[in-house]
Each structure stands twice: as structure tokens, then as C-alpha cells.
């Protein structure tokens, strides 16, 4: 509607300028003709008449010039303004295309955040910004990056979807300043913020917040809203691609049922941990876990309950180990935990803690849930990754044979004797 009105006004102004130009040209032409005729012999008797006509033409020319010149000047100013606006829009479009191209090369959220900050510094200069992305469980949004935000009103670290009007409505929302304004609960009352949900393929991946200050903050915020929405759209596709890559990577490394790492990842990590243990001379332990009578549990209560037990057992294990430890699903109902820088005795103690946590799950399902544990360590029981797993598996078999629901540590090798025999053999060969 506004664009149509502008076109109508421009057309009317062009007509006025054209009318004034035609009038001026006609008056000047008339004056020139009168001047030429006044110099001719036969027309000298009409000199006074021609003089008055010439004077009238000059007056008409001045009037046309007085009316048309301001319009022409205004039209030129409007043309310059439109040209500058077109150049600015072209620059913005080029920056958006460049942002989209750079985001295609982003490997993760850190790269995407760097591209967003660089683009915002050019397209949204003078405005603060913050980007929130959903966590893995999608129950909250975490602050991914922020820039140029007032120090006394920094954005919160997390946002609940139920506290954000933009996410609840699925469309941009302006948090106006004032006691009567409809504002999100996670924002302070003294900051003007535009919130734009970032959607791609019908799913929300994040939230873009643009902050504006000053007396004309609302006016400036309204002017850049379309541009901020374009930035959010470009960023939404990048967040969608990053989320998809993370999901595929997780599926390649983790067991879909328990959420633990799969066996292939376990083998790679264990090999690296063994090499690191040999280089640093530190201990490395593994705990092999097997749920007792799991096949009987599936037969009597169904596979749905068996899957639920496996998931809860995995959660109980993850909740009791260190961040540096690695819990994996070895196969079926067998699990394995890698404990870097952990001795055989400490690993056996940790295994007893895990055994008690798993046994406590029996009350949740009205059936007995227990597990047997086999513990092995380097250098007490093995020197290679395959030997370490085999030693833990042998200890697990011993736990099964001795009654289940218990922890058995592998027998220590007589390292001193072996080393002494090796040394004596070396001396004999050298002698």
C-alpha cells in the first residue's frame, strides 16, 4: 500500500515538472520569435506589440521556472535518495549472500557464531545481539553467542521455551519497555529487545535477539526488523545443517537404545588410552558388566521392559563415573567402562558402586535387576588392549560362576618375576 502511494506521488510530481518544462520552452520560444521579428523591416511597425509579447513570454518563463525548479530539485534529491537506498539494499543483499556462503562451510556452532557476529557488525551496526540454540533434550535454549549488549543488562545464559512469547507464538515479538508491555519473563524490564524464532524445515532451532537503546530505539528497531529477519532466516538453515550433522555423528558413535558409545568407538578410544598409559606410565582399568539373567527377564516381562532396564542401567552408570571415563555398550546386555588413570583397586571400588546402583533399580520395575562385574587393569593384568579386555572378560566369567551380582578383579601378573627373567635372559644373550 505504501509503495503504491509512493508511485502515485512520483507520477504526479513528474507530470508537474514536465508541464513546467513545456511551458518554459514555449515561453522562451515565443520570446525568441518576437525578438527576431522585431528586427525585420516589415515588422518594425509592430515593435510595441512584439515587445509586450516578449515581456509576457519572459514573465511566463520566470513563473514556470519558479514553479518547476523546486520540483526538479526535489525530484533529483529523491532520485539520489532512491539510488543510495538501492545501493544500500544491494550491499545488504551481497552481505547476506556472503553470510550464507560462509555458513555453508561452518563445521560447528563456533564457526556459525563467528560468521553471525561478523555479518551483524556490518548489517546491524549499533544494535546488540544474542543467539540461543536448543540443547540436546530441547527443554531449554542455551546462549551460544552475544555481542554489543549493555553491560548492566546482559542476556541470560538460558531461556525456557515456555517463558518466551516469540517461541510460543512462532513469530517475531518485540519486548517494549514499560510496565504495561507484554514482555518475556527471561528479560529485564529496562531493555528493548526484538526476538525472532529461527525456523527451518518446520522446526525451531534457535532464537535471535536484537537489542536497541536510546530515545529512538523503537523507531530504529522497526527499521531494521526486515533485515534482522533475513539474517535469522539465513542463520536458521545453518543451525539446521549443524544439528543434522551432530545427529548423524551421534548416531555413528552412540548406541541408539542406551545412548552409550558403541563398540567401534570403544575400540578406538581404548587403543588411544592404552598408548597414553604406556607413554605416561599411568594405570588404565576397564570394567566389563553383564546383566544377570537378562534373557529370562525378556522372556518373562517382554522386550519393552528389557529395553527400559538397559536404558536405566546405562543412566545409572553414566551418573556414577567421571567425565573422563567412557561407558560403552559392548554388545547385547554387556557393557564396558574405560577408566583412565585408575588402578585395579580403585576400579574394583567403582565397580561395587555401580553394582549397588544397578541393584537399586529392582524396585522401579518390580523384578530383580542385578549385574556381574569383571575388572582388569594395566599394567597389573595386561600390556595390550586386547589382553586388557580379555582379562576383564575372564574376571566377569568368574563372577558369573561364583554366583553373579558381584565384582571380581582379574588376578595380578607377577610383573617383577617376569621382568627379572627377561633381564637374566638378556644378560645371557649378551654374555
Written as H for each helix and E for each strand, in order along the chain, the element string is HHHEEEHEEEHHEHHEEHHEHEH
Helix content: 55-70%
**Amino-to-carboxy terminus distance:** 103 Å
- The appropriate CATH architecture of the largest domain is 2-Layer Sandwich
How does the major sheet shape up?
A: 6 strands, antiparallel
The amount of beta strand, in percent, is 15-25%
> Compute the gyration radius: what is it?
40 Å
The CATH topology of the largest domain corresponds to Alpha-Beta Plaits
Q: Uncertain runs with pLDDT below 50, 5 residues or more?
A: 1-6, 415-431
SS field, number of helical segments? 12
Integer count of domains: 3
The averaged pLDDT comes out at: 81
Class per helix and strand makeup: alpha+beta
The rough form would be described as: rod-shaped
**Widest beta sheet: strand line-up:** 3-2-1-6-5-4
CATH class of the largest domain: Alpha Beta
Could you name the CATH homologous superfamily of the largest domain?
Reverse transcriptase/Diguanylate cyclase domain
